[in-house]
């Protein structure tokens, strides 16, 4: 699963975009990893992997360093979409 797919799955589960999590963390004045992890697990029921993805964007924004060169985790874009999943309009027949 790519980094972006983790963020998209969190949005599907919670209804919140990464930008909304960033704003909420800022409002709650949460910056430390441990506090963010506890908040995301307790308030949103996120597992460790999904919570870590949200924590990354809270602490580091939309860029990341490519660590996987092959396989399902590969995401060579280096940029994450924080506005949420783009919904495509279905054409009517």
Quick description:
This protein has helices at 3-14, 18-28, 33-44, 48-60.
Question: Topology of this structure?
Answer:
Elements: H1 3-14, H2 18-28, H3 33-44, H4 48-60
Structural class: mainly alpha
Helical content (DSSP H or I, runs of 4+):
40-55%
Largest sheet: none
Question: What characteristic shape results from the CA principal axes?
Answer: globular
Number of DSSP E strands? 0
- Per DSSP, what share of the residues sits in E-state strands of 2 or more residues? under 5%
Instruction: Compute the separation of the termini in Å.
Output: 33 Å
Radius of gyration of CA atoms, rounded to a whole number: 14 Å
Q: How many individual helices?
A: 4
Q: How are helices and strands ordered from N to C?
A: HHHH
- What is the averaged pLDDT score? 82
| Uncertain residue ranges | 88-93
Can you walk through the features of this model?
With 93 residues, the protein is mostly helical. The chain has a domain at 3-60. The chain has helices spanning 3-14, 18-28, 33-44, 48-60. Helix 1 (3-14) packs across helix 4 (48-60) and helix 3 crosses helix 4 (48-60). The protein is globular and about 25 Å long.
